Each structure stands twice: as C-alpha cells, then as structure tokens.
Amino acid sequence: MQAQRTVLAFFAVARLLISATTTDWQTAGFTDFLKGRLSGLSLSVDGTLQPGPSLRWDAALNQPAFWNMVLAPDGSVYAATGHQGKVFRITPDGKASAIWNAP
C-alpha cells in the first residue's frame, strides 16, 4: 500500500511540473504588429487591425509593408513599398515584378 501511495505522489508531482502555464502580452501599436506576420488582416498606421483579404503573391513581394496600392484597368495591382522604395506590378494571376527602385 505504501508503494502505491509513493507512486501516486510521484505522478501527482510530475504532473504539476509539466503542466502548461498561461502567457500574456500586450501590443501597443503599428511597430509591435509589424514584427509578426498577418494573415487575413490589414494593419493601419495607427495600429488598428481590421479584417483584410488573404492574398497569395509571388515570392518577389517579400516586403514587410506596403504604403499604397492601386488597381489598374487591366486587373493588375501596383504596390508601393516604403522600406526599400520599390514599386511592384502584380498581374491578375499573382506574378509580381519590381518596376521601379528608388535610387
């Protein structure tokens, strides 16, 4: 009987040692959210998150943020970035190419 109690006590303590804990954090604005990767959300400059489109683009669009986008009559999208000063043309089938680089 004593052995059973010892084994039971061991497993009870072991369970406490491996139990999950909660974690919380706060995000305070645009720069905090920019560190992550958004999927299906859009982030405004003031740090507001809103539902946004879930897009799959060409790997050439590896940019942390886009400052502006314009839809062209042919269905292409022109996207301007601020981090590297590039403008991309994205065709309706999702292919992207840089059409302008800031000097």
Textual characterization of the structure:
- The protein has 103 residues and is of the alpha+beta class.
- The protein is 20% helix and 24% strand.
- The longest helix is centred in the N-terminal third of the chain and has 16 residues, at 2-17.
- The mean pLDDT is 79.
Distinctive features:
alpha+beta; two-stranded antiparallel sheet; 20% helix; four-stranded antiparallel sheet; 2 domains; 6 strands; 103 residues
What is the strand and helix layout of this fold?
Blueprint: H1 2-17, H2 30-34, E1 41-43, E2 49-51, E3 68-71, E4 77-80, E5 86-90, E6 96-101
Antiparallel strand pairs: 1-2, 3-4, 4-5, 5-6
Q: Give the C-alpha Rg.
A: 24 Å
As for the number of domains, it is: 2
**How many individual helices?**
2
Order of helices and strands: HHEEEEEE
What quaternary form is this? single chain
Overall average pLDDT: 79
Q: Name the structural class.
A: alpha+beta
Low-confidence stretches: none
- The share of residues in helices is 10-25%
Query: Span between N and C termini?
Result: 81 Å
